[in-house]
Amino acid sequence: MRCEDATAVQKHLWDTRDLFSTDVHGLVRCGPQLAPPRFRLAYIPCRNRGEILRLILEESGAEYELEVVGFKNWETGVKATTPHGKLPVLRDYDGRGRDLGQEGAITRYLASECGLAGEGAAERAAVDSLYCFWFATLRNQGVSHDGEHFSIAALKTCDQTVADVPTYEEIFRRDELPRAVRSLAALGYFERTLEAAGTGFLVGDRPLLCDLGLFYVLYELAEDDNCGPDFAARFGVPLLGAFVERMAARPQIAAYLASPTRMPRYARAASGASTYEYVAGRLNPEIL
Question: Has this prediction a pTM greater than 0.90?
């Protein structure tokens, strides 16, 4: 199925339900649509590794195209067109026909191009350091959105707060700690970083790359079928709670969260493992 209408793409995904069964290959225009698209991002029809990239583009108001590649089309053809046989890919990123692969490289490139990497060498280094920390903890070294270092599945049944667990700095790699404890320690680190910054953001006085990564993980954590909107009170992280609300209210991000161009969520098992079956969420209702 090939189509260029975001609502039609989304409806096709709901009709299919199983991510691995999708044959969609759509090219969807995103952004203000006042000028020719500056970027083309290719990714599978879910959020995962593509979400931080899209938030960079949306927050900056960039004109771009989203190439939505269903698994069937990826396996049978698109895979061979990518630099490392994987998605996401930024198409023709240099204007010379070459594609850029690897999530981290695309993230840094887009953040720099869109003005969300920080100002000056020192601030850029601080932003990159927090991005690396986010990638190692909340993104589980890039392997998964639910794993050893951060697990929403483990937090769903957790009755502790960040005050009950060691700080992240006190934990050694050899420490055998439950996933929930490691998850709280990571959240506690970001809570203290917000407190130290005193601006409502992690670095400086506006959202940058590291803030966008933190936001979308917290937004998912706050889904009703995860830890709910009261996660901040439950885990003792009030600044993170205020942060996610403030970020979600930003005009560009608020519009994106409610847009049919945003890919739907998919369910996870009690263990945190992906089921790859689409489920509804806040501002992302099921299309009947």
Answer: yes
